[in-house]
Amino acid sequence: MQEIGQQYSKDDRTDPSGFLKRARLHQSVFRAKYLDLPFDTYGNYLTKDDGEKGKNFYDGFGVFDAVKKYRKYNKPLYSNLLRSEHIPFNIFIPLDKDKNYCKNVIGDILKSNIVSIDRIEIEYAPKPKEKYLNDGTSFDAYIEYTNFDGTKGMIGIEVKYTEKEYKLQANSKQEKDINDKNSLYFSVTNNCGLYKTNAIEVLPTDNFRQVWRNHILGESILLTDSDKFQHFTSLTLFPADNSHFIKTSKEYIELLTNNDNKFIALTYEDFFALLFKHCPDSNYKKWLDYLTTRYIVTND
Fold first, then answer.
1. pLDDT tens figures, 103-118
2. What residues contact 258, with CB distance under 8 A and at least 6 apart?
């Protein structure tokens, strides 16, 4: 077995729950024990050579082929086992290969009779962006579906692992839009009817800003393309031990006028359980065993 490698990072100093540290160790053990590969600087990093071979991705269902079409070598995506960038590929590319399987799982999540899954995309943003939020907001994964009554819906998915809130980058377009009450952020928020009256006072803060932007991106599609789509759900997927998103999700729901499939916070544990429940064959069972071993943090 390969060495576990160096574990400490300055990020651990802002990790009061200890989840980041445990997750880093878990990914380092996965690299050393299951992949049997060397590390680069930290234990959770693959070498560039192994990253370019696709070792950060599931070996099956054309996952790495999809990655290569999306982006050439990029260290956070290809070589960092801890960051979440690679996770949408490992989860949603296999689901795209069996849309009936995906339909059964999504139907369970939405508690709705879905007839078909019509489209699955990774890193999706509607175009032209000027018609929607006019910024760089995108969904980590995006699903379009048809309901039993013939109406069309969308799910915009944010996939997290150890991440918490994101700080606002100074002098960015996002900062300008956040501070401009005439920007599309605020017009969409006011027009979609999703939020309670005083919610706008806290939505732009670090805790909620990314959840809010992803949610109103979907709402902007509903407002702009109302002839095509009638439903949008914002779904945040994260490990049960990520206490930040447990807390933030509960507080975010309190800002909504109602939550009839408007926002869903789903843990990896509950999501994987649904994937197992509807698992169609042994090939997908092997994939699910990989997801569980890879992403469910244990006391290694």
1. 999 999 999 999 999 9
2. none
